[in-house]
Amino acid sequence: MVESSISSSSSSYTYLTDCKSSFQIHNILPPSSNPLTLTLNHFLLLLLLLFSPFIAFFFVNLKLGTPSPIFILPWSLLLLLKLLLGNPIHKESVILMPAFGVQIETHYTRGRVSRRFIAVDKILKPVLLECVTPATCYWNLSLIVQGEQQLISVFKVLRPPAKMLVPIWKALCAVTTDNDKEEESSKENCRG
Amino acid sequence: MWFVNRKILKRLCCIIFDAMYAEKVNSMMGEQKERFRILMVSDFFYPNFGGVENHIYYLAQCLIKLGHKVVVMTHAYGNRSGVRYMTGGLKVYYIPWTPFVMQNTLPTFYGTLPIIRTILVREKISLVHGHQAFSTLCHEALMHARTMGYKAVFTDHSLYGFSDVGSIHMNKVLQFTLADVTQAICVSHTSKENTVLRSGLLPEKVFVIPNAVDTAMFKPAAKRLSRDEIVIVVISRLVYRKGADLLVEVIPEVCRLYPFVRFIVGGDGPKRVRLEEMREKHSLQDRVEMLGAVPHAQVRSVLVSGHIFLNSSLTEAFCIAILEAASCGLLTVSTRVGGVPEVLPDDMIVLAEPDPGDMVHAIKKAISILPMIDPQVMHNRMKGLYDWHDVAKRTEIVYDRALKCTNQSLLERLSRYLSCGSWAGKLFCLVMIIDFLLWRLLQLWQPAERIEEVPDFTMFHDEDCSRP
């Protein structure tokens, strides 16, 4: 595996590529948690655990009945735990198979992997976009796929910087253009 | 005799000195013309159409032509959200904040801080330019920009009262925003007076730069219209502020006095019902044509079908509609309100008090001088009088002055806010302290180094900047 980490900073993403086999694998690993963020998260969690009896008492006093805190509290705690205890993603990968297609993978920390394969003839164009949310802006690598109403995001959860996305975008462009050339040559052969 | 000669000599010396100074400034500008990176912020932008929207668009295009980087930030319009590119590589951020009331985003004070900070850092912005006092996004952006130490320029496009509740509140908000703004721009001298009175801003900090018109889009008809029937055109939103109630009284009287006069009324609004009722009451269906809402692309075709343009506004900082009409070769009849008397030369406009009798008299006068009006000559004059390139160059001077201003510490800035009022001053200080603390927290959470800077996208084009 050829490692090409873009930044040495602990807060940055890690980009790994493997081009040994006939197809290319591009991996993006999430940033290791910032010590400050981790400390803050654990502090908030501790506060939550300390105040949970008071929250339960508040629910009972509001005449919501005893079942409501029993049902509400564990779920709210679980939700907050999920939010506070970092990223559930281990890595996100793109496997480029020339003449076949592209496989997008999301590897979760618990071992679950979600995969999606897109045939090369269905990919119209890979695009590098700037996305805007109410709070931030980030770069996103997407695919314009035939028959799909919306763009298909290559990295569904992670938001790697543009300098990591550019080589992947170039590789995707190469895969799709190679396929177009093959199609054109086959059409010419048919005409011949 | 000697006194006259001395006066002439003094005048000549002044002219020579001015010329030398201008040459020196130009040579200095040639040596080190700074490329500004401007973020224009307003709730009002394309796909909406209006004075503010047009101003931002054309000014941005001409500034790009002058070699500056311009980015526009506005809220999302329906499906139009995210980053879009317009003519000349103008980059627009449509932030996915839904409009709250009158195309304005909900005022949150601090909700927009993360996104504004991200845009300012990633676009390497040097100056923030906010447009329109109505825009909440503009006020918030200017507030955050000053907190982060960026220079801020504000353009006021409207006039406000002093007595009603809405105006009192708006003036306090404006006072808060302008207390720490680097420079301000107004579209007319009347607007400048109004802004200075409302906000307590130093007059030397306020510049007057009028709007302009895209004369290429508003050309007169190729064939001159017959004067057998005189057509008076009205294009405006049919609301109280635009004097729709005046029209209800003026139109029947003019139709009674002149049987050869016909009206074309373009626009929509709550007062349309009153105009329809007037038309029915006086049986003027054949003489008053109601077009309803007119798309911006069709305004010119409506204007060129008339001889006189009638503007009945009760308040106006600068009426762009008058410029568009004059560019199409129409003689204008308008109410003498706000900045309207500053817009056109006396021979191109007939002014009247916002009173039905005076308006009718002004229309009479306009009909009498109509044979002396040549639409093509009027259009050519407008070409020379109002040009977006000139507006951009004048705005460039304001930016230059703003960037030369010294940076002030938080304490110095807070002292300005304290002078805004006994209790309001303290409240403003509290708002700014919280904003400063939140900004510092954001810097810890996500340092500026982690925000990726955007590569510049430049388009080389030779076409006129004023063409969309």
TrEMBL record, chain A:
Domain of life where this protein originates: Eukaryota
Keyword Iron-sulfur: no
Residue ranges annotated for the Phosphatidylinositol N-acetylglucosaminyltransferase subunit H conserved domain, each copy included: 93-156
Membrane spanning stretches: 43-62, 68-85
Pfam families: PIG-H
Swiss-Prot/TrEMBL keywords: Membrane, Transmembrane, Transmembrane helix
Keyword hit for Hydrolase: no
One GO cellular component term: glycosylphosphatidylinositol-N-acetylglucosaminyltransferase (GPI-GnT) complex
InterPro entries assigned: PIG-H (IPR044215), PIGH-H_dom (IPR019328)
Pathway listed: Glycolipid biosynthesis; glycosylphosphatidylinositol-anchor biosynthesis
GO BP annotations listed: GPI anchor biosynthetic process
Family per record: Belongs to the PIGH family.
PANTHER family in the record: PHOSPHATIDYLINOSITOL N-ACETYLGLUCOSAMINYLTRANSFERASE SUBUNIT H
Protein name stated in the entry: Phosphatidylinositol N-acetylglucosaminyltransferase subunit H conserved domain-containing protein
Species assigned in the record: Cannabis sativa
Lineage: Eukaryota, Viridiplantae, Streptophyta, Embryophyta, Tracheophyta
TrEMBL record, chain B:
Domain Glycosyl transferase family: 223-368
Domain PIGA GPI anchor biosynthesis: 75-164
Pathway given in the UniProt record: Glycolipid biosynthesis; glycosylphosphatidylinositol-anchor biosynthesis
Enzyme Commission (EC) number: 2.4.1.198
One GO CC annotation: glycosylphosphatidylinositol-N-acetylglucosaminyltransferase (GPI-GnT) complex
The protein's name: phosphatidylinositol N-acetylglucosaminyltransferase
Gene source species: Cannabis sativa
Keyword terms of this UniProt record: Glycosyltransferase, GPI-anchor biosynthesis, Transferase
GO molecular function (one): phosphatidylinositol N-acetylglucosaminyltransferase activity
Gene Ontology terms: biological process: GPI anchor biosynthetic process
